[in-house]
Write a structure and sequence with these properties.
This protein is an alpha/beta fold and 327 residues long. It is 32% helix and 24% strand. The chain has ten helices and 13 strands. Helix 4 links the parallel strand 4 and strand 5. Helix 3 packs across helix 4 and helix 7 packs parallel to helix 8. The radius of gyration is 19 Å and the shape is globular. The structure holds oxa(dethia)-CoA. The site of oxa(dethia)-CoA has 21 residues, from helix 2, helix 6, helix 7 and strand 12.
């Protein structure tokens, strides 16, 4: 039986402060009814003072380490998937390394927007296949509340702050990461972006710059997201020769309940086989999948020997799917 990279433990963290649809009704011209029917979101968690992305990431990482029974010093590599770190340089991962005391790790970030966690997991897996002794922290963490234009009705109701983490090691049982397929299409970058680079943003040079906010052509993103995730899931199942009926749980990126429902319908799976928590947290970009995975794990939904599929879609465009046989 071949050796595989395997998720040894999960952890997550969200800030205490919450922002409900009713709270948003007092801020912009929206309604609980619109947000609920169009997105499925009821609530999101919002960071308070000092709760930077690296702080959320560190708390999630610590929870995953406790679950794994590992000390921070036993981690060899620390990867953070994020688009909302409090600093451009150094990486969020280096800040997390310092915060949790992962003194023996090397640390770096991955930017693939909402698909970031799957990309980071993919990079980590390759290290494990080269050296099965390694222990790797893979974290998805965002404070998108700092990147949202709170006057923009089209985006401000969608996003939230959170972090999720896994410890990746190896399994000799043949369980673990079975198949993956990642995609990018940079020609569609204008449909979902957050400009921040001075050279690309003339507004930064005229003194009126107010910040770099998420901009999205929601309807187009919606259509691409459904089709792209469906295709990615079918590709990884095809690679592994696993039938969709054999999959116990699909953990999709949590952006919009209607995207998830359409995906469920197109894949022809039962609704109870798809994990959904978007109502509680909104879209937390790279954090949605590890957060959902940790919740599903704590709810006992991830059983040994079962097939779990993760799938994501985000800015870039980037998308992909990963098939796991839970250890
Ligand atoms: O994380 C990965 C990437 N992100 C996604 O996957 C998100 C993909 N897109 C979506 O989830 C949906 O497109 C949205 C939730 C963003 C928007 O839903 P929609 O059904 O596509 O609505 P829409 O943008 O077509 O807007 C419909 C109407 C518009 O009014 P008119 O033009 O019909 O009069 C909007 O102005 O709803 C209006 N609207 C709102 N009304 C109340 C837009 N946002 C709001 C709002 N509250 N927050």
């Amino acid at each position: 039986m071949s050796l595989r990279a395997s998720i040894l433990a999960t952890g997550s963290y969200v800030p205490d402060r919450t922002l409900s649809n009713e709270d948003l009704e007092k801020m912009v011209d929206t309604s609980d009814e619109w947000i609920t029917t169009r997105t499925g979101i009821k609530n999101r968690h919002i960071s308070g003072a000092g709760e930077y992305t690296s702080v959320l990431a560190s708390r999630a990482a610590e929870n995953a380490l406790v679950a794994a029974g590992l000390a921070p010093s036993e981690i060899d590599i620390l990867i953070v998937a994020t688009v909302s770190a409090e600093m451009t340089m150094p990486s969020c991962a280096c800040l997390v390394q310092n915060e949790i005391g992962a003194v023996n790790a090397f640390a770096f970030d991955v930017n693939a927007a909402c698909s970031g966690f799957l990309y980071a997991l993919s990079v980590a897996e390759k290290h494990i296949l080269v050296n099965p002794q390694l222990k790797i922290l893979v974290i998805g963490a965002e404070t998108l509340s700092t990147r949202v234009d709170w006057q923009d009705l089209n985006t401000c109701v969608l996003f939230g702050d959170a972090a999720g983490a896994v410890v990746l090691g190896s399994s000799e049982l043949g369980d673990g990461l079975i198949a993956e397929k990642l995609f990018s299409d940079g020609s569609l970058h204008n449909l979902l972006y957050m400009d921040g680079a001075q050279s690309l943003n003339p507004a930064l040079n005229n003194g009126e710059y107010q910040g770099s906010f998420i901009k999205m052509v929601g309807k187009d993103v919606f259509k691409y997201a459904v089709n792209a995730m469906e295709n990615a899931v079918r590709v990884v199942l095809g690679q592994a020769g696993v039938d969709i009926g054999e999959v116990s749980l699909i953990v999709p990126h949590q952006a919009n309940i209607r995207i998830i429902n359409k995906l469920t319908q197109k894949l022809g799976v039962d609704a109870e086989k798809v994990y959904i928590n978007v109502s509680k947290y909104g879209n937390t970009s790279a954090a949605t999948i590890p957060l959902a995975l940790d919740e599903a794990n704590r709810e006992g939904l991830l059983q040994s020997g079962e097939y779990i599929v993760l799938c994501a879609f985000g800015g870039g465009f980037t998308w992909g799917a990963t098939l796991i046989k839970w250890q």
